[in-house]
């Protein structure tokens, strides 16, 4: 009791207005809290109902939780020692648990939060009775106790139940929760909403364990989910206006929010259970959108009206309801089960209501008018803040994907009506007349790509266009461009026009572009319109023909240059993106030396201020690459003269603990090199760069610096290897020797991520250095094959193997002799190389690497080298009776490791080459078992007839995926996955050859000549492989 009295006295002292008294009390309290008794005192004070509420809150909220985090257990990262004894912990837990039933709501909430923290650590091992105790009090008749326990449960279910505990807990818990949800007279809406939140966590938990306990989960969902869905149906059929009109708080919305969140989760997890109710819930969704829209307009579009909070003073708004509602509609639409509902005539009203809910609120207007970065973030596809507008965009995108023509035609009718209504609203003097029109243009603009594709498809099929964008661009949008009193509509007009730039006739496109540039140049233009103009210029630069925009390019670049020095964060990112796009117009032929110089200076200035930001560094590197790549004579020299000394100096002066300086400087230098002309880097380039670059790479251990440095050296070798070969450092070591030193360092480094690009460096060194590398080649190759034995990551292994594949195609016997004569820890280098290659060949990435690997594999087979006949490699998986048709989890794999057959290398080579052919030849028509025959819970039976014909996709989706999956679909498609290879490799004869025909000829010749005992080797092939081989040979 003495400790409790001391703690209470100190707490009172901390609330004193006298600073000396307050400080003394805080110091004494800090000492007291080091003792276990102080923790118990805090818990008892928090539970003492006749104590001053301020002292109780301080005890239960701030100090007791702080005590738990610091003095409870090493489980917490903030633990400071002196953990309380077990008996004291038990008393503290009892006191805090008692607080869940306290008459004061705030005390209940604070105790729930503290108890949840304790449960993180103690349950179930040290606090096994917690769950039963919680279920007991939520089963009681006390609304206060239920309220406190439900707050605790919300966190508890989310974080503390393991897979094995979930099902037993749900059997006890869910019936009690359902009783609370149905007791509207006894429990508050907020308490009832928490029962739905906990139920949603239970649904998620069931989904997570359905593979481990399929039958139990099936039974649970069959018996539990329909009951809750019936309850949700009843709740949503109650008019939502009752929860918002004439109410001091919006507690009732909390229930609806949780219902729609849960419906969305259920559709994702167990759509089949939801299917019988889907029409009702979609109707309810549409009804909510319709009847609550006037409330949204009243409270959110006008700054004079403030929406109420909850009775617990927590913020609640209609966006919290509409976002999960739209997410649910979106998932149902994407899944396919909503098709019938849309056929009943609901599409038009849904689109109209989404347009209405996407209107800009007064808070948006105030925030975006003064905060440029917030406005840019909202407008950028990659940084958009999730909200009603973004949820609406996603639903529209899904509708357009599922029903392109119907949706596009609906857009036309809805926006026509919006234009008419906005005009009438403006004429009647409504100051908010512009909001619906801005929202409609934003909605239609967000779907520009899909709309344009739909229009193009309909025109190609000689059907009427479902939407008339041209009329909007000529009759509606131009009138908004001069409305300075409506800056957001004005800006939206520019952005909308730029999103549909492809449809603009040349003269009108030029007028739009000129108007946007004038806004950028205007001194008095506000943030929204100026940023919109920059965004429009960016879109115009990407969507217009160079012939239209090139005359404006120099003016745009000159106008944007000062913005680089004035903007930050998202706004700076937009400006950098736009400058980068503009510089690519007509290959920069419009640049002058003066403009290029000023842009280079600005780029370096931005770099110095944002040197740690990888996104900005990437954009700045692109800008330098575009500047140095300009086709105008003299530009390259100007850019290099200004940038290279600064970047090289930064590499040399960066301290070891400032790796980001060297990392970014090397990346920007690589940008300069990438843009260099084909004639070379220019006199003195490498001499200026090399000393600092090599010194930096030799001393650094930073992964990113090594990666960037390796990539930069690779570019230099590609662009101008002569400079590297003729340069030598102060000690007389050549550039080649320095490069080999870096390669050696990367091979020795156990952190393989730093050497991910070593393969490209070595490949181009072999291709470009010619005879200069012959003297050091054997030593380098031995080092590489020596590293293969310890290499772990697939990308690093590829970097080691592919250079050998390249050499085998050019100097097969020389390379094989070297490998045969090399010993690596008692194994021949040939054995190490062949084992590594065969185990990883199927994981190689990139078009050229896969081709060079296949060519080398066929070369080795044709060599009939005796040493290769004795190399045994991993074959096919051995399927055991106990693992057949069993999903192998990690635990099962640990207990029953996967085993493989062992086969000679020639047989493995044939297997791998057959697989390559199957990926690109006629065997790709082999079909897998019909997935439609499997029992699943996807619930997507509608929109399926077309999809069953195309492996689960619509025809156009399947065609798109087929294009994307090119190299594994067609070996003779030279355009696929070329982004993984540089330009030189794309032009290499290996990339240009008909690989499919090469492999077919290879197999036919081997069969005809029985090369390398081809007939005997085929005995190691599977039935499917033999079938394919016969078709190839006989075809």
TrEMBL record:
SMART domains: IBN_N
Highest taxon, organism lineage: Eukaryota
Keywords from the UniProt entry: Nucleus, Protein transport, Transport
PROSITE patterns, A to Z: IMPORTIN_B_NT
Record InterPro entries: ARM-like (IPR011989), ARM-type_fold (IPR016024), HEAT_IPO9_central (IPR056840), Importin-beta_N (IPR001494)
GO MF term set: small GTPase binding
GO BP, one annotated term: protein import into nucleus
Pfam families noted in UniProt: HEAT_IPO9_c, IBN_N
Name of the protein described by the UniProt record: ARM repeat-containing protein
Species assigned in the record: Heliocybe sulcata
């Amino acid at each position: 009791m003495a400790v409790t009295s001391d703690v209470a006295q100190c707490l009172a002292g901390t609330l004193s207005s006298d600073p000396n008294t307050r400080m003394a009390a805080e110091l004494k309290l800090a000492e007291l809290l080091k003792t276990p008794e102080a923790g118990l005192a805090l818990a008892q004070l928090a539970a003492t109902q006749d104590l001053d509420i301020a002292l109780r809150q301080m005890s239960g909220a701030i100090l007791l939780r702080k005590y738990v985090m610091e003095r409870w257990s090493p489980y917490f990262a903030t633990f400071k020692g002196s953990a309380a004894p077990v008996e004291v912990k038990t008393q503290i837990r009892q006191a805090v648990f008692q607080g869940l039933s306290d008459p004061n709501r705030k005390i209940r909430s604070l105790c729930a939060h503290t108890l949840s923290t304790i449960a993180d650590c103690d349950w179930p091992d040290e606090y096994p009775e917690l769950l039963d105790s919680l279920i007991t009090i939520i089963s009681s008749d006390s609304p206060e106790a239920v309220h406190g326990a439900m707050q605790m449960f919300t966190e508890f279910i989310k974080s503390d139940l393991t897979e094995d505990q979930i099902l037993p807990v749900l059997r006890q818990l869910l019936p009690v929760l359902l009783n609370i949800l149905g007791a509207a007279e006894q429990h508050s809406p907020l308490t009832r909403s928490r029962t739905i939140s906990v139920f949603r966590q239970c649904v998620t938990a069931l989904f997570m364990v359905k593979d481990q306990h399929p039958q139990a989960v099936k039974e649970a969902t069959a018996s539990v989910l329909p009951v809750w869905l019936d309850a949700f149906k009843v709740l949503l059929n109650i008019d939502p206006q009752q929860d918002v009109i004439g109410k001091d708080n919006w507690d009732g919305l909390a229930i609806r929010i949780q219902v729609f969140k849960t419906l969305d989760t259920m559709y994702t997890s167990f759509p089949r259970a939801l299917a019988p109710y889907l029409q009702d819930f979609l109707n309810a969704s549409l009804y909510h959108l319709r009847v609550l829209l006037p409330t949204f307009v009243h409270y959110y579009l006008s700054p004079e009206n403030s929406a109420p909070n909850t009775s617990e003073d927590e913020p609640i708004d209609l966006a919290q309801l509409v976002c999960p509602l739209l997410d649910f509609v979106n998932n149902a639409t994407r899944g396919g089960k909503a098709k019938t509902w849309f056929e009943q005539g609901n599409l038009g009203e849904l689109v109209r209501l989404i347009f209405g809910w996407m209107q800009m609120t007064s808070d948006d207007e105030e925030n975006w008018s003064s905060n440029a970065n917030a406005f840019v973030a909202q407008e950028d596809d990659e940084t958009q803040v999730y909200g009603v507008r973004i949820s609406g965009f996603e639903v529209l995108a899904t509708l357009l994907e599922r029903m392109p023509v119907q949706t596009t035609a609906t857009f036309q009718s809805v926006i026509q009506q919006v234009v008419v209504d906005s005009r009438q609203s403006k004429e009647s003097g409504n100051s908010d007349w512009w909001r619906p029109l801005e929202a409609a243009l934003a909605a239609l603009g967000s779907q520009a790509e899909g709309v344009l594709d739909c229009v193009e498809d309909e025109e190609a099929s000689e059907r009427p266009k479902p939407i008339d964008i041209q009329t909007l661009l000529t009759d509606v949008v131009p009138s908004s461009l001069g409305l300075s009193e409506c800056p957001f509509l004005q800006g939206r007009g520019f952005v909308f026009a730029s999103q549909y730039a492809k449809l603009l006739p040349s003269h009108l496109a030029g007028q739009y572009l000129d108007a946007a540039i004038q806004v950028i140049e205007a001194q008095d233009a506000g943030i929204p319109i100026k940023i919109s103009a920059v965004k429009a210029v960016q879109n115009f630069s990407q969507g217009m023909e160079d012939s239209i925009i090139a005359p404006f390019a120099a003016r745009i670049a000159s106008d944007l240059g000062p913005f680089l020095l004035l903007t930050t964060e998202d706004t700076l990112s937009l400006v950098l993106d736009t400058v980068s796009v503009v510089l690519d117009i007509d290959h920069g032929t419009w640049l002058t030396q003066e403009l290029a110089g000023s842009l280079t200076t600005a780029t370096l200035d931005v770099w110095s201020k944002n040197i740690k930001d990888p996104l900005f560094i990437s954009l700045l590197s692109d800008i330098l690459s575009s500047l140095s790549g300009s086709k105008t004579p003299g530009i390259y020299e100007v850019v290099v003269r200004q940038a290279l000394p600064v970047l090289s100096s930064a590499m040399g002066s960066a301290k070891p603990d400032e790796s980001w300086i060297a990392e970014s400087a090397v990346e920007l230098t690589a940008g300069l090199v990438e843009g260099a002309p084909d004639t070379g880097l220019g006199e003195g380039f490498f001499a200026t760069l090399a000393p600092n670059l090599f010194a930096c790479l030799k001393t650094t251990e930073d992964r990113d610096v090594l990666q960037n440095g390796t990539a930069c050296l690779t570019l230099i070798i590609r662009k101008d290897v002569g400079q590297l070969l003729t340069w030598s450092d102060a000690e007389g070591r050549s550039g080649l020797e320095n490069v080999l030193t870096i390669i050696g360092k990367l091979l020795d480094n156990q952190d393989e991520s730093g050497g991910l690009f070593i393969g490209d460096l070595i490949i181009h060194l072999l291709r470009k250095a010619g005879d200069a590398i012959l003297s050091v080649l054997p030593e380098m190759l031995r080092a590489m094959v020596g590293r293969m034995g310890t290499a772990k990551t697939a990308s690093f292994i590829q970097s080691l193997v592919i250079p050998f594949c390249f050499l085998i195609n050019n100097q097969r016997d020389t390379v094989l002799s070297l490998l045969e004569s090399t010993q690596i820890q008692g194994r021949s280098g040939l054995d190490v190389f062949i084992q590594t290659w065969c185990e990883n060949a199927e994981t190689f990435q990139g078009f050229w690497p896969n081709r060079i690997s296949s060519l080398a594999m066929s070369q080795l087979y044709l060599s009939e080298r005796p040493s290769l006949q004795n190399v045994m490699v991993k074959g096919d998986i051995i399927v055991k009776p106990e693992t057949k048709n069993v999903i192998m989890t990690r635990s099962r794999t640990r207990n029953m490791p996967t085993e493989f057959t062992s086969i000679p290398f020639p047989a493995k080579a044939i297997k791998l080459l057959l697989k390559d052919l199957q990926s690109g030849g006629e065997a790709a028509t082999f079909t897998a078992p019909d997935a439609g025959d499997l029992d699943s819970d996807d619930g997507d039976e509608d929109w399926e007839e077309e999809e069953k014909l195309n492996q689960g996709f619509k025809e156009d989706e399947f065609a798109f995926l087929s294009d994307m999956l090119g190299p594994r679909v067609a070996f003779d498609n030279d355009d696929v996955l070329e982004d993984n290879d540089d330009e030189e490799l794309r032009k290499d004869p290996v990339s240009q050859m008909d690989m499919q025909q090469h492999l077919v000829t290879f197999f036919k010749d081997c069969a005809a000549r029985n090369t390398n005992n081809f007939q005997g080797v085929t005995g190691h092939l599977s039935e499917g492989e033999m079938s394919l081989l016969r078709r190839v040979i006989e075809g």
